[in-house]
Write a structure and sequence with these properties.
By secondary structure, the protein is mainly β. It is built from one helix and eleven strands, in the order βββββββββαββ. 35% of the residues are buried.
Length: 124
Amino acid sequence: HVQLVESGGGSVQAGGSLRLTCVASGAPYSGGCMGWFRQSADKEREEVARTSMNPGTITYGDSVKGRFTISRDKSKNTVYLQMDKLQAEDTGVYYCVLDRSARPCSWTALRSGIWGQGTQVTVS
């Protein structure tokens, strides 16, 4: 039974930085795709960043390109999201997602994957 645990959320002023961490525990896996979505009160769930675990093909949502960086550590079953130049529009609950299937890494595949409980990010 795989579980995802996010950490690193919090409150920050505009222009600041935060680093989110997501650890996948439970049944081990060697591949798959991991990524981040976010949800705010007045927006639909938004795609933020994703990375295939082997090899590391990376894709970003348009609103975070150039400001956010996703990275992975396969040995630790962990994915990180470095968020720089944060804006008020980045406020929301950030969810880590894992797709363990053999499908190509995609937003569609992630949406039907395993979701973490979410971590709040507030930018003021």
